[in-house]
Amino acid sequence: MLHIRPFTESPAYSNIFRTTMMQSATPDEMRGRLQGIFTLVLAAGPRLGDVLAGFTAALIALWFPPIAGGILILVVVGALYATRRRFRHYDALEPVP
Length: 97
What we know:
Helix content: over 70%
Largest sheet: none
Structural class: mainly alpha
Strand content: under 5%
Distance between the termini: 41 Å
Shape: globular
Number of helices: 4
Number of strands: 0
Number of domains: 1
Order of helices and strands: HHHH
């Protein structure tokens, strides 16, 4: 059971970092609105991903959705890194939206 512990704890750590970055970089007057969108994305995102992965696996192959998802994540992060200066130079001590 101990061998799976890091995998069950990692979403909690990820949530702490995401929430901290979002709240520290968001102006006070926008924080409530952004928290609502953030909650919606966290609630609906995995369900939509499950549906998309299921359809893709049924149409193509069972191995295709995780491979395609991993490649898509690498492409999106690479594009953000290449085109967004603020993404490259994010400073947690002085966050700028």
